[in-house]
Batch of 4 targets.
Target 1
Amino acid sequence: MLPNYWYAILESNEVKRGKPLGVTRLGEKLVVWRNERGEVAVLHETCPHRGVALSTGRLIGDCVECPFHGFQFNAAGSCTLIPANGKNTLVPKAFNAAAYVTKEAHGFIWVWHGEPRALAALPPLPFFDDIDDSYSYLTLRDHWPVHYTRAIENQLDVVHLPFIHKTTIGRGGHTLVDGPYVKLDSDRLLVWVDNRVDDGAPPRKWSEMTEPARLPLLTFIFPNIWQNHLGDNLRIVIAFVPIDDENTMLYLRQYQRISRAPVLRTVFDYVARLGNIVILNQDKRAVVTELPPKTWAGMDEALIQGDRPIILFRQRRKELLEAAGLPTH
């Protein structure tokens, strides 16, 4: 995983008051809960004492209690009580659990995955500022047995539409790909799609194109947020949440403000969700067969011009891993 980034790991409504939740995210087993004020806490799930899963315990005030020996841990990971030692005995720091800095926004729970920093010194959350409360959405959650790089690259792939999605969003036989024009702006990868019917003329090279005046169709924000900008009133957003090196949870939302009357909005969101289930399953059937399940820059694949968004994604990811002193694959 790329270090020193905010990762969306869960939707807000998955964490209920009064009960800890155990999940695997970023290759770690985590326990997540809400304190008495509704604020979210995230710790490594394993109790430092005897290795029991803290998610199988209960909540005592703002703390999670280990079910085995009653050790209690607060949101900072500090062990606040060892019952066998007495409530007035100082708890050694060796019994503290590892904690994540956490935020809740845009209906997601985010954790800071990286070097410790003061909350005020952390960068802003990677999301789309122009999506506000005027949009409604329903979420489609889907588990894919692939590394999150494969899932992301599928949504940056502008070549596959008339084949995988020939009965849905790829109708029309637009098999020839001009460019595509792609721009890497720090941690944002912007993609303008120009696919057309093959009339015998060769595709335009991306180097011969200039940045289009229209907004990009696809935007990916490192490390794991993507948007398909279908219009000012219609967007699709996906959070590609890493579970481990071979599994990813996709949270797909179709944001819309086309239908705003309560009943019509509910019907629109529900029908859109059904359509997205079909489209996502078309993708999934292909992506889960790709080998290896993880990708990296320089891997043994023969890529074409139309794969430029994927090439730039891999190159940028490699740069970020190298800068952190981590293996690039």
Target 2
Amino acid sequence: MAKKDKAVVGIDLGGTKMLVGVVQGRKVLASVKAKTDPAGGEREFFATIAATVAKALDEAGLKPGRLAAVGAGCPGVLDIKTDRIVSSANIPFIKDYPLARKLEKLLKVPAAVENDANMGLFGEQRFGAARGCGHVAGFFLGTGIGGALILNGELYRGSSGAAGELGHIFVDAMGPACGCGNRGCLEALAGRLALAGEAASLAARGGAPHLLKEAGADVRKLKSGALSRAVEAGDRQLRDLVKRKAALVGLAMANVVNTLDPECIVLGGGLVEAMGEIIVPAAEESMRRHAMPDIAKHVAVAPAKLGDLAIVMGAAQWARERLDA
């Protein structure tokens, strides 16, 4: 069977859920979500992967023999010299771990693994908001803030494979502690957890009545959707808070613009999907205000287009190109 007739599986692999897609060319034939529980151990984790891939292939109407390769986007740092994942904060047993080799053994096809944010931006550059651009930066605003870079049309991974940690651009010397161990990182100031913390305080003080009515002041309940609905319902102080956080993202974007002169910056992640109409223009305005004007005028800012499928499509295409599948 010709390679072009075979499909590639892309996996968005997370600590609490995974999304598996069967991709043929530019088309996702089927996608299946599943919950994951790394605390259940390595065997259970891979059993879930195998079952989810099998279900996705079945829904796509394909037999395993029609599968050419598998690509996976996984949170964590990849050592490009050994092709092992150094660590993944959300999956405890992944430490100096040969994930690609494990997937090859499990699924009986060649496998390629990369950082999930890298795969998200790669998907957007090949198929989505940055299609056709050779120099792209991506900021993905979720629980934290992920980042990735594409330079000269290729994923930029740095000397060790860890390049693109844009969520850890230094923003404020007096800022809060970050999960990376430093203080004042963009993620610690503008990720969803940071936004939710300040939103909860705002709600408790009476400044966001719609948010208080729907979700209370419990940070754990303040997901992107709840924040978005409260803004739409008229919580103006909450809208202003979101815009201030977006302006901080724009400040980090300006640093990237001045350093790398990209053609395009892609903004994605759950917060952008929920409140992109507020976040994208506020971040862009801040970027243009802080970056060197002669560089910034050439930079497009775009919301991600592929949504949940960005990592799946990026990982599948990464495997196809890297493994010539």
Target 3
Amino acid sequence: MVSRLSSSTAIVLAILLAAVTLGLAIMGEHLYFLFACVFLFMIIGVPVAIALAGSSLLFIVMQGTVPDLVVVHRMINGVDSFPLLAVPFFILAGSLMNTVGVTNRIFDFAKAVVGWLPGGLGHVNVGASIIFAGMSGAAVADAGGLGMIEIKAMRDAGYDDDFSVGVTAASSTIGPIIPPSLPMVIYGVMANASIGQLFAAGFLPGLLMGAALMGMVAYMAHQRGYPRDQGFSFRRLVTSFFRAFMSLMTPIIIVGGILTGAFTPTEAAVAAVVYAAVLGIFYRTLTLKRLVFVSMETFETTAVIMLIVAGASIFAWILTSTRVTELFVGFAMETLESKVLVLLMVNVILLVVGCFMETIAAITILVPVLVPLAIKVGIDPVHFGVVMVLNLMIGLLTPPVGMVLYVLSRVSGRSFEQCFSGTAPFLVPLVIVLVVITFMPEVSLWLPNLIYR
């Protein structure tokens, strides 16, 4: 499977390289060389951060007009950002939540709330993801943490594996939409947009995604004859609520603190880590060994993300200084006649890129090119950020580089192809929500306008 996926990725990237070659031939050999190097490095499997930084260094050497040390300075300046401090803390908070038993309590509470509906555990799956989204901010963390619990419970209850894996994969994409959100932090830094407003803008779209997925669960439960998993019990609801009360306070503290202005997103990330540690001590599940393990995991993940941001910073600086973004905006403005066509083009680009590139890498590469175009045609950068992140979340569910599918393949013991087959029906409600959010910006902007403007 690995070789097949690698070859398909290489073919598509080669096609993209050919398209870029045609489009950039008129811009001069140096720019052509820059883009050719980036795509070539990606085709042969070079890490994205090295591909971006290495191509940029080669471009500067060939151009010969600025010192080589500019690469280092620009990379350092790219990660020298206070909002980026939120990244390691949100990663650590999500890992701690998975480690100290928060996910089990959230799942039990969600089961008491919606488990009595037909296809109940499917609804529980979505509801638990909505709650956990207010803690982790990462789809992979949701799939890896809650996913193991959800798939096991649905298997024990007799649900089909394709349904169990599909709803688990689709619901995990809610995590980076509802605040806090790691992709929103990266987008805010790259696009110079308010992270607080981006967090607020993702709240209603995230709930809309949950409602759409629950609608699909209800439809499939009716089609397949899934029963109610349990009767509604007020006593069970109250018991599970008090058992999960401390855990349920986490999204309230994080999201409520940000939206009310009690602390910044970066400070909220620190608060989330402290509160997660307090929960671990309170539940008596946090040991020194577990703390060391999640800390090392956080260091590794943060280092990868920061290297990508650093590499993208010098790449973006070259695109700006050589007026590539201006040329692209000018071309799009001349070719496309309306904002609607621009949004359609952007969605197609993002959906295709999301199939072949990891979320953070895609954001850091595309923001310098697409955001100036969005602003030029009158699209609010906060609204555009939600559209971009949702597109790339859908990409996490599509081959060949569907990271969530790889995680659930390992968790469920099913092949990558089987995981995608089960997930495919749930792409329909997600794409419908994407269309609504794209062409009804008030869904994203109502809450930020209410709080910040």
Target 4
Amino acid sequence: MTHPEPHRLNLSAARASVAVAVVLVGVKLWALWMTGALSVAASLADSALDVMMSLGAMAAVAYAARPPDDDHAFGHTSVEDLTALGQALFLMLVAAGLVWQATARLMATEAPQLHSEGAGLLAMAVSVALTAALVVWQGRVAKATGSRVIAADRLHYMADLLPALGAIAALLASRVWGVWQLDAGVALVAALVLARGSLAIGRGAWDALMDRRADPAVLDGIARIADGWPGVRGWHDLKTRTAGSRIFVHLHIELDGDQTLREAHDIGAGLRRAIIEAYPEADVIIHKDVVRET
């Protein structure tokens, strides 16, 4: 089953993402109208895409929270990995676009016609503040729930900070010194950060879709719990896989064959609760075997 607290956190982060993206579109539209700056236009395009990305992330989080059914006995959390993989591919395209745009600006020979830089600076400063606050919240949620969708959405907004800062730098340099090439370097750095993060998110989503085992630290933690659990004579065949923010755990434990069925059940149930307490995102199945004779 899906635990309500991680789902609530994921959904709150997804809703905040959509709300911030819509506000940023409005702020940057006004800044573009006031300044005519291409750097602001590029940042506006990013925010417009953010709205679509964030709506997709919110839909994925809501769908992943649906309980298991006859067709999906293990739940729907894999949709998070599918969405994260799609976002990673999209982010790679955005990174390539940033490189293309930055290169074109560096090669340009004529300065763009900028005006009302002060108004643009104010709008972009508000944009950076809202984006930074969202990134902090998404980071806390992603760490608490392990959601790859929230992590991918957070990465997108982190990448947006650099173009926004580049727009501020461009407007400031244009107003004070008449320099207009400054934000191209920032855009190149943003593209590299975005590409690196996209590869990490995409690789994690791909591994989950291919039923790769859980993180070795999780495996070690489960092993330590099983090793010290009263009544467990041994264990074997620890198997895990991930799907979205969920970890599915199968474990065989070896018990004394002379004890009662109730005693054996209590040992297995207690061990299962202990594992879930340590890893709330885990879905645990314990198989009970009679202790092996040596």
